[in-house]
Specification:
The chain has 154 residues and is mainly α. It has one domain. A three-stranded antiparallel sheet has the order 1-3-2, covered by helices on one side. Strand 2 and strand 3 form a beta hairpin. Helix 1 packs antiparallel against helix 4, helix 3 runs parallel beside helix 5 and helix 4 packs antiparallel against helix 5.
Length: 154
């Protein structure tokens, strides 16, 4: 396995497991510390891409930061669209994930793999970093909104 795929493979396995859970129709309980597992994995992928990108310029770093900020805003909007409910007997808070978001993240990871493995030219590492920064920002934005919702229900 290529050095660029380590954290991506872990994230992809988690996405597949979430997809299988979603397929069963179950709502997912918000577990506050576990909520930040995927953002940490995507942040690790961003750092790994940054460290392995040859001669990434200041413009490349700035474009990755802009993509991360745009992803964060999209993530906040996505967090708003999730369906939340509270179990009255236990007090636990649940949310319903959507297929589309999981498929989007799997597609972004797949595109990153293809770009990093087969992309040529100076823009391949930059595009890979920008894609994963956008996805990471989106997940962080979603988890930020979900954390705020969790604390609001408590």
């Amino acid at each position: 396995m290529n050095q660029y795929l380590n954290f991506s493979a872990i994230a992809l396995v988690i996405i597949v497991l979430k997809f299988l859970r979603l397929q069963s129709g179950a709502s997912k309980r918000i577990k506050f510390p576990d909520l930040w597992l995927m953002p940490v994995l995507f942040l690790a992928m961003v750092i790994q891409d940054y460290l392995t990108a040859p001669d990434l310029s200041a413009i490349g770093v700035a474009s990755a930061l802009i993509c991360a900020a745009l992803g964060f805003l999209v993530g906040l909007m996505r967090g708003r669209t999730l369906k939340y409910h509270r179990d009255q007997s236990s007090g636990d808070i649940y949310y319903q994930e959507s297929y589309q978001s999981l498929l989007l993240y799997a597609a972004i990871i797949g595109a990153k793999w293809l770009i990093r493995s087969y992309g040529t030219g100076a823009y391949a590492p930059l595009l890979s970093l920008a894609l994963i920064a956008f996805a990471g920002g989106s997940i962080i934005g979603r988890c930020t909104f979900m954390s705020a919702r969790y604390l609001e229900f408590r």
